[in-house]
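Quick one, probably user error.
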């Protein structure tokens, strides 16, 4: 690999990592008391999914271990934001859904997060953000396929 290509790649990923850190910090500051970014992310995912998910499906969606997702789900269940029930067809599996309280917590979080995100888009400009999205999606897909190539298939129940 040439130095120029390597420098380009390093610069790109340095920007992405820094943007990730700054975005997380700015969003975390405005989240409702007691809510973590991981909580909002799972609630938002479940709100959009419109159907129950297994902990394993959620872990795959967020590129997390099952243990990490189980920890987050326990906190969400304790807060009353999700329902976790046995799968009646396979007792080894559990199914997770967002509760009414969880939907309300997600909506409250979104109401305080949206102005932070909109402010950033306003500073950069709608057209420039719109132009950047396809490249960012391609990067995400390339990284997702690389990650899935590294992970062995799991045969455990979801």
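Nope, works fine. Designed sequence:
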């Amino acid at each position: 690999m040439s130095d120029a290509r390597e420098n380009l790649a390093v610069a790109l990923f340095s920007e992405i990592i820094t943007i990730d850190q700054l975005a997380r910090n700015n969003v975390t500051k405005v989240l409702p008391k007691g809510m973590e970014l991981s909580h909002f992310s799972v609630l938002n995912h479940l709100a959009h999914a419109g159907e129950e998910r297994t902990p394993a499906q959620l872990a795959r969606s967020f590129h997390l271990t099952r243990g990490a997702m189980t920890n987050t789900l326990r906190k969400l269940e304790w807060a009353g934001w999700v329902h976790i029930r046995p799968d009646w067809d396979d007792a080894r599996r559990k199914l997770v859904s967002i509760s009414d309280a969880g939907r309300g917590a997600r909506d409250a979080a979104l109401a305080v997060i949206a102005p932070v995100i909109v402010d950033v888009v306003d500073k950069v400009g709608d057209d420039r953000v719109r132009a950047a999205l396809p490249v960012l999606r391609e990067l995400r897909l390339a990284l997702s396929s690389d990650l899935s190539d590294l992970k062995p298939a799991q045969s455990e129940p979801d």
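The helical segments are 3-30, 37-49, 55-61, 66-78, 100-124, 126-150.
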